[in-house]
Amino acid sequence: MAAPLREPPALHDKAIQDLSFIRRTMEGASSFTDVPGWGLVAIGLTALGAAALASAQPSRERWFWLWFGEAVLAAAIGMGTMWRKMRRRGGSRLGAPLSVPARKFLLGLLPAIIAGAVLSFALLTPTPDVPASATPPYLPGLWLLLYGVGIVTAGAFSVRAVPLMGLLFMALGSVALYAPSIPGDLLLALGFGVAQIGFGIWIARRHGG
User: Fold this and answer.
1) Neighbours of 55 (CB within 10 A)
2) What is the DSSP string of 130-194?
3) Which of 104, 115, 190, 199 has the least CB density, counted as fewest CB within 10 Å?
4) Do 191 and 200 form a contact (C-beta atoms < 8 A)?
């Protein structure tokens, strides 16, 4: 006895499936334009304040935890303002909180951030020839360099300003590592403060906030 033939999908169901496939394909091929420009400005301002406070800390532990707190605050500001921009532009959908370009951007950024966090704790241990109250000698350069690497990688899926900002971070990180006479807090202020404010204004004006 022959098996009953399966009923073909209704015409409107097939049309919905085709439209969903086309939408996912177009979404995956598009650039991530929801980098929050004004969010970067806010992060830059908090970084300038952190740099001023960090330069006055009496111990490397207090210096480190102050910058760690700034990193947590910056992440919260960045995620919050990015989410707000995505909602305003309609970039998130029910059942898929992040668009495909947003997921690519974050997956490109996170490995460098995680590597920086792991190395930070490893390099926090004082060395015999460096005073205990000094800024850890390699951390400013390490943070700037790895953050720049993450931004350049993630920026491949975003607007042109993002990878350019990453390259600037990488340059500042190289200076910090090879010119230890320059105060680390000054270079951190230039990178996480001034550079992010400048690129944030650029992105906000050209890409909708």
Assistant:
1) 15
2) S-TTSPPSSHHHHHHHHHHHHHHHHHTTB-THHHHHHHHHHHHHHHHHH-TTS-HHHHHIIIIII
3) 115
4) no
Tell me how far apart the alpha carbons of residues 78 and 17 are, in angstroms, rounded to a whole number: 34
**pLDDT tens-digit profile of 81-102?**
988 888 887 655 555 567 777 8
Structure tokens at 21: 């496939």
- Picking from 193, 208, 207, 203, the residue whose alpha carbon sits closest to that of residue 42 is 193
Instruction: Give the separation between CA 102 and CA 109, rounded to whole angstroms.
Output: 11
What tokens does 87 get?
Answer: 């909602």
Distance linking the first and last C-alpha atoms of the chain: 66
Instruction: Record the pTM.
Output: 0.79
